[in-house]
Amino acid sequence: MSETASPAEPWPKVVLTGAQMLFVAFGALVLVPLLTGLDPSVALFTAGAGTLVFHAVTKQTVPVFLASSFAFIAPIQGSVASFGVSATMGGLMAAGLVYVVISQAVRLKGTAWLHRLLPAVVVGPVIMVIGLALAPVAVSMATGETSDNIDYGAAIFLSMASLLVTLLLAVFGRGLLRLVPIMGGIVTGYLIALLMGVVDFTPVREAAWFSVPSFTAPSFHWAAILFMIPVAIAPAVEHIGDMVAIGSVTRKNYLEKPGLHRTLLGDGLATTVAALFGGPPNTTYSEVTGAVTLTRAFNPKYMVVAAVIAIVLAFVSKLGALLQTIPGPVMGGIMTLLFGSIAVIGMNTLVRAGQSLTAPRNLVVVSLILVFGIGGMQFGGGQFTLQGVSLAALVGIALNWLLPREEEGE
Length: 410
Known about the structure:
Helix content: over 70%
Shape: globular
C-alpha cells in the first residue's frame, strides 16, 4: 500500500475518512472549551481554521489535525477567573507568538539551544505543574460543588461512571474504540444523567439551528500575557515529539521536510488565529495520529477535509447548545484523569532523561518548580503578578541557567 492516497481517490472516501478523523478528535476538541467556559462552537471553528493554517504553512505534507490543547486547560481556567475571557485571548495570542519566535530561532540555529534552555529537568516538572495546579477544580466539579441541580451522591455516581468507562476504553478498548475513550466516557455519563433527569435542554430549545459562533475579540493586558507566555514552553517542546511520532508512523522525517521550523510556525500561527476568534490554543492531536496508524490514512488531504467539516459544524448552533447541557460532574470525572495524565507525562519526561533527581542541582530545580507552581507562590502585584505555571517555568529556566552543571552536563 502506498504511503499517500492516489490523486484519483474518490471524493466520498476522502470525505468519509476526513469525517472519521474529526470524530476521533471531537471528544477532546470540545472538552477543552467546556471545561474552561469557552464556546465549543468557536473551538470547532478555530480547530478547523487552525488546521487549515498549519497545512498552508507546511504545504500539506504532514497528516495531522490541530485542535484544543489540554496543556492550556488549567492556565485558561486560572486566567479567565483572574482577567476575563478577552484578556485571556490576548495572553494566548502572545503564547502563539512564542511558538513563532521559537520556530525562527530553530530555522536559524537548529534545536540544540532549545534543549539546553529547556532540558527535561525543567520541562518535566513544568508539565506536572500544568496538570496538578488546578486539580482541586476537577474534584469540585466531580463532587457536584459547581452544579446547582445535582447533589453530592448523584454527582459522585455520574463522575465515577464517566471516569470508569473512559478508563476501560483507554486500557481494554480495541480498534477505533481505543481512540475515543473521552467521547465514550462523556456519552455514557450523559446517558446516565438523562435517565436521572438532571439534563436541562432549555439551551437547545432556545438555540437557532444555524448561527454565527460567539466569537470573542482579544484584549491585551500585561498580567494576562505574563501569566500565559511560559505555558507555551511545554507544548512547544512536546511538538517535536509529536512530529517524530507521526513521522515514525508514515516513515517520513518531518523534522527535515517540511522542517521543524515550518511545523512550529504552523502550530504557533494556528494558536494565534484561534485566540483571535476566542478559541482555545491549538496543538497536534495524538488521537488522530493513532487513527492514522490504525487506518493507514497518510494523505494530509483527509485532515484538510476534517478541518472544513469542523468549520461547517461550528455554525450549527444547536450542536453547541447540546454540548453545553453536559452536566458538570460528567466533565469532572474526565478531568480527574486528564489533569493526572498531564502530570504523568511530565513525570515520564523526567524518567526518560535518566538523571538522578536526588543530585543537589536537579533536586533544587525540580523542588522549587513544583512547590512554587502548585503551592500558590506569587511575586509582584497588580498587572505584574507572576504565579502558577508562569512563575514555575521562569524559576526553572533561571535556576537551570545559573546553577553550575554537574560532570555529565544536562
